[in-house]
């Protein structure tokens, strides 16, 4: 249904936007105003400028310096130039942790965006009882990490767990999940999807931001659900998708708490859950090699930075701001 | 199929999808609540039992006595309310400036704002602690509150995305009427961004409410501890108090659930532009 | 467009600093951990610990007893909510230069912290007050000592043994009063105890690496040695240790490792334990699980026996435990020592371990507490004099993680035991240099 309508109506957001863009008050556009708010801009941003330097830049600068030293938290250490960085190249576990982290990010980020958007759209339907559904999807983010870790082990235990019990009932021999090198990361990705409640809230807020007028106009034109989704909802949701993409990449590369709690910091089985920041943490806080850990942090920084620049660069093609 | 049937079918299908998905998302919560009501011998049985037998309502009164619950609740509330206020006051202002005002250095500063999130907190934790130590704030809740008043990059970025979506024409029109920039922000832009600001407030609220590492590092007097630290108190090498721990966890999540339940209408309803037309 | 009154804007801009002032006012300074608190000749010393429940009561009992005895020193015990394996709080406090006077401390970390100069050397204090190693189990004193200097006062200990389910033994036709002594007997019993139901296990006899089945437990039981004290080198590739890992790897192959792993116990305290629910008939466990079992399954019918060895004799175990230390930079080291000494004395030991049902580091105290008459506890007490401790080296954590990884990789078939352990040796010895 609705497929035949595709050819008939053009519901691309630009055209819909053009004749339906809300224009509250019309005045002649004075050129001076937009350019004249330099001082106000600084003034508005001033709390953050102070905060940024105090609470962020200062510690960051310290960590850059540490990355060139043998700093151990308890001892200032000595300046050793690029030695930490050189050593890292030969550190097998470091390389393994990169592989694990990239694997996780490659699968988790797109999956979380697709399922987050889909879920948010489902939760944005006008159906009775939606408030309750929305609350339910938000719940897992509220349960403490220890409880989540315990519960998952209970569900995914290969021999006795509920999941494999269920699979067994329908005649499938379930994998060993967290006990298996092959399945441990997919299991973790699956578990992490449980906590997308926060992203869903952001998408929901984004969906709420899309003016009803676009839909009304599309309705008048006889657009199908499919067209409305791909020509109005998704394009106008791009600023928020963009945000969740950037933050998702940052978050995925810094994945720490869940696998750390789950494996007691050991990254088992066979280091298949040793993620980058877990190894960084062990170096900094267990082996007292904070200099080395700082070097790891800055390598990670460069990687995330490059990815973010790429995302920003590409965003000009796919992110549509309603305000422009 | 006639249209009403299609509609009905769609609604039923939607409900079925939602219910199945809900079950998946409900599992951890049900487990938490069910554990909180179990007699201790029933917590780790096999096959697992989902319904406590008998319902041990006493776990709640026991849990509340096991730790100074009310005192910790008060401490947690103070920290949470103040830090959420800080975020809600500052972040939209800064985000607005990044999104709509043009000033020298804006893009560089915005890039730096994003960049500071790319360094794992594990390496800045100690330098930051030393800074607060120098300021004499260690042993107080100030390190958990004051930085929020100066802005948090995650929220600034999020709000900027929302402000970017607001039409420039609104701002220009108001400026034509002679409104100051602060007034434009306060009277036009801020109300429009309310859904996003509420979402940000909710995130900060949850972050402060459940923060463990911050209170662990900075609070040194047991009288000023928070609920997340209390959770740790149920853990013991010689046998943790799982049911009591889950009882406190449940109590901790309840206010947020209630808040979310009632607030969501506000931040999900979104903006109706017609409503603000003059 | 409806504009609000201009003064509302002003009100808000005024409100911001007001809120800040409120925030500052609401959070009065609690006083820092390390501040000098001498009043009327009474010195108050701060003692950080992370014990909870009965453990906290036990600590408070020791503190009360001490405070009663000393008019001029008052110990203030503060629960820190830290995790004994992840103590960022103490680390940050020491780095910031205001640590507590006394802190609870995992002896496993004495090597690394002492090497970093973060602990006060107690050697002179001990010598002056006649506190000597003869009072304590050899492993406990050794674990508190780094490079011949005493840095910590041991206060409790533990040991690893084979726990077996007596009901399962009866069920499988095994004698519950005659548990396996040799590795061969262990394998035989495990096979009899394992019940498979189609693809799925109903009961697993034994998983060597599960719970406390670390390489330390097996390596020492096979007669290996992990550290050469004279050369100051790690010897993880000791043929006996290699042999023990080869045995574990064989076992993993026999039962298909992936089918029987995934039991990664998160809490380490034994409640999540399939042994508790009867799904695992035997495992290597620690004495701290006794209380857990009593709490979560009071009717669990089990026995304990030393970890089997290839020959069926020379049983051993390894022990760790907690200590009290004086962090570097503590404001009142002299008064702190008085408390540390008291905690380590027979009197302090009796109060603490008696209340918490933990094992004392002093043999006579264990006897006094009646542990030697208890069917389960006595097994642990008997093994303690022969127990080992992990090498006290700054790289202790690294060695631990590397050994754990070696086992994990070996049972999953990523490399042979010999190669893996040689790699551990190389890596850790390189770090030592």
Describe what is shown at a glance.
The complex is a heterotrimer of chains A (324), B (278) and C (433). By secondary structure, chain A is mostly helical.
State mean pLDDT of chain B (0 to 100 scale). Answer: 88
Order of helices and strands of chain B: HHHHHHHHHHHHHH
User: Could you give a short account of the major beta sheet of chain C?
Assistant: 6 strands, mixed
| Protein structure class of chain B | mainly alpha
Could you tell me the mean pLDDT of chain C?
88
The CATH architecture of the largest domain in chain B is Orthogonal Bundle
CATH class (first level) name of the largest domain in chain B: Mainly Alpha
Shape of chain B: flat
C-alpha end-to-end distance of chain C: 75 Å
The greatest interface here is:
A-B, 110 and 105 residues
- What is the rounded Rg of chain C? 25 Å
Taken as a percent bin, the fraction of beta residues of chain C is: 15-25%
Q: Give me the CATH superfamily of the largest domain in chain C.
A: Periplasmic binding protein-like II
Fold and architecture overview:
The complex is a heterotrimer of chains A (324), B (278) and C (433). Chain A has 16 helices and no strands. Chain A has one domain: MetI-like (MetI-like fold, Orthogonal Bundle), CATH 1.10.3720.10. With 324 residues, chain A is an all-alpha fold. With 278 residues, chain B is mainly alpha-helical. Chain B contains 14 helices and no strands. The C terminus of chain B is likely disordered. Chain C has 18 helices and 15 strands. Chains in contact: A-B, A-C, B-C. At the A-B interface, helix 3, helix 4, helix 6, helix 7 and helix 8 of A face helix 1, helix 3, helix 4, helix 5 and helix 7 of B.
């Amino acid at each position: 249904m609705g497929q035949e309508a595709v050819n008939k109506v053009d519901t691309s957001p630009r055209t819909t936007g053009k004749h339906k863009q809300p224009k509250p008050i019309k005045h002649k556009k004075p050129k001076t105003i937009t350019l004249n708010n330099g001082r106000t801009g600084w003034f508005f941003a001033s709390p953050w400028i102070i905060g940024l330097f105090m609470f962020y830049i200062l510690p960051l600068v310290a960590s850059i310096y540490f990355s060139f030293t043998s700093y151990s938290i308890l001892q200032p250490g000595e300046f050793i130039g690029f030695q930490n960085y050189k050593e890292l190249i030969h550190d097998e576990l470091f390389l393994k942790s990169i592989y694990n982290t990239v694997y996780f990010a490659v699968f988790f980020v797109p999956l979380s965006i697709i399922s987050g958007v889909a879920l948010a759209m489902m939760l944005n339907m006008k159906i009775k009882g939606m408030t309750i559904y929305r609350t339910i999807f938000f719940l897992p983010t509220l349960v403490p990490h220890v409880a989540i870790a315990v519960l998952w082990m209970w569900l995914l235990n290969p021999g006795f767990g509920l999941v494999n019990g269920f699979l067994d009932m329908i005649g499938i021999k379930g994998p060993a999940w967290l006990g298996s090198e092959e399945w441990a990361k997919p299991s973790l990705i699956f578990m992490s999807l449980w906590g997308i409640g926060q992203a869903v809230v952001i998408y929901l807020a984004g969906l709420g931001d899309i003016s009803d007028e676009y839909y009304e106009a599309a309705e008048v034109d006889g657009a199908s659900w499919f067209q409305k989704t791909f020509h109005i909802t998704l394009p106008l949701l791009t600023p928020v998708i963009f945000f969740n993409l950037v933050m998702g990449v940052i978050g995925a590369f810094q994945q720490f708490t869940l696998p750390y709690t789950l494996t007691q910091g050991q990254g088992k089985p066979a280091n298949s859950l040793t993620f980058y920041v877990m190894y960084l943490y062990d170096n900094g806080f267990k082996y007292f090699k904070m200099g080395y850990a700082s070097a790891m942090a800055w390598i990670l920084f460069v990687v995330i930075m490059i990815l973010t620049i790429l995302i920003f660069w590409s965003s000009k093609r796919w992110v549509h701001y309603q305000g422009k | 199929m006639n249209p009403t049937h299609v509609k009905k079918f769609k609604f039923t299908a939607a409900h079925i999808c939602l219910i199945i998905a809900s079950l998946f998302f409900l599992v951890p919560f049900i487990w938490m609540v069910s554990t909180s009501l179990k007699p201790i011998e029933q917590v780790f049985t096999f096959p697992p039992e989902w319904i406590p037998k008998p319902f041990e309502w006493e776990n709640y009164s026991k849990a509340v006595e096991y730790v100074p619950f009310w005192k910790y609740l008060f401490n947690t509330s103070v920290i949470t309310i103040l830090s959420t206020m800080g975020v809600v006051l500052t972040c939209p202002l800064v985000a607005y400036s990044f999104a709509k005002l043009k000033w020298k250095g804006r893009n560089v500063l915005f890039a730096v704002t994003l960049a500071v999130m790319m360094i794992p907190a594990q390496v800045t934790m100690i330098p930051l602690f030393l800074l607060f130590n120098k300021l004499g704030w260690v042993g107080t809740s100030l390190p958990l509150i004051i930085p929020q008043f100066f802005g948090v990059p995650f929220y600034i970025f999020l709000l900027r995305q929302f402000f970017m979506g607001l039409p420039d024409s609104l701002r220009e029109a108001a400026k034509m009427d002679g409104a100051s920039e602060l007034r434009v922000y306060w009277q036009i832009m801020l109300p429009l961004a309310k859904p996003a600001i509420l979402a940000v407030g909710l995130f900060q609220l949850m972050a402060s409410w459940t923060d463990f590492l911050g209170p662990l590092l900075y609070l040194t007097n047991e009288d000023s501890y928070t609920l997340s630290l209390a959770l740790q108190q149920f853990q013991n090498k010689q046998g943790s108090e799982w049911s009591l721990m889950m009882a406190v966890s449940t109590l901790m999540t309840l206010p947020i659930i209630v808040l979310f339940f009632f607030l969501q209408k506000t931040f999900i309803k979104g903006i109706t532009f017609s409503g603000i037309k003059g | 467009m409806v504009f609000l009154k201009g003064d509302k804007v002003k009100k808000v801009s005024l409100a911001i600093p007001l809120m800040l002032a409120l925030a500052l006012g609401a959070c009065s300074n609690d006083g820092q951990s390390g501040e000098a608190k001498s009043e009327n000749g009474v010195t108050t010393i701060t003692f950080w610990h992370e014990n909870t429940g009965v453990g906290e009561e036990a600590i408070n009992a020791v503190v009360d007893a001490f405070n009663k005895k000393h008019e001029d020193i008052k110990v203030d015990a503060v629960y820190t909510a830290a995790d004994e394996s992840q103590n960022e709080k103490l680390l940050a406090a020491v780095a910031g230069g205001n640590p507590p006077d006394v802190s609870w401390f995992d002896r496993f970390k004495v090597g690394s912290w002492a090497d970093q100069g973060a602990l006060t050397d107690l050697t002179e204090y001990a010598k002056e007050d006649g506190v000597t190693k003869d009072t304590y189990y050899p492993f406990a004193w050794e674990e508190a000592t780094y490079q011949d200097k005493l840095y910590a006062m041991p206060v409790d200990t533990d040991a690893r043994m084979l726990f077996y389910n007596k009901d399962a033994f009866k069920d499988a036709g095994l004698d519950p009063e005659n548990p396996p002594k040799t590795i061969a007997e262990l394998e035989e019993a495990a096979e009899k105890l394992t019940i498979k139901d189609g693809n799925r296990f109903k009961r697993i006899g034994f998983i060597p690496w599960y719970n406390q089945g670390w390489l330390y437990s097996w390596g020492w039981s096979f007669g290996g040695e992990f550290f050469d004290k004279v050369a100051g080198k790690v010897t993880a590739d000791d043929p006996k240790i290699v042999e023990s890992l080869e045995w574990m790897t064989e076992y993993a192959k026999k039962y298909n490792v992936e089918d029987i792993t995934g039991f990664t116990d998160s809490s380490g305290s034994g409640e999540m334990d399939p042994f508790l629910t009867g799904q695992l008939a035997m495992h290597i466990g620690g004495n701290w699980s006794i209380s857990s079992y009593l709490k979560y399954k009071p009717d669990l019918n089990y026995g304990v026996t030393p970890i089997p060895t290839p020959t069926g004799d020379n049983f051993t175990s390894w022990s760790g435990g907690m200590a009290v230390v004086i962090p570097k930079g503590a404001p009142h080291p002299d008064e702190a020592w008085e408390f540390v000494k008291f905690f380590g004395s027979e009197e302090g030991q009796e109060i603490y371990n008696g209340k918490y049902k933990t094992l004392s580091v002093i043999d006579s105290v264990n006897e006094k507490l009646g542990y030697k008459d208890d069917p389960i506890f006595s097994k642990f007490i008997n093994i303690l004099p022969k127990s080992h401790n992990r090498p006290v080296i700054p790289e202790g954590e690294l060695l631990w993680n590397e050994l754990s990884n070696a086992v994990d990789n070996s049972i999953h078939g990523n490399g042979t035991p010999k190669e893996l352990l040689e790699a551990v040796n190389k890596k850790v010895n390189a770090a030592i240099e």
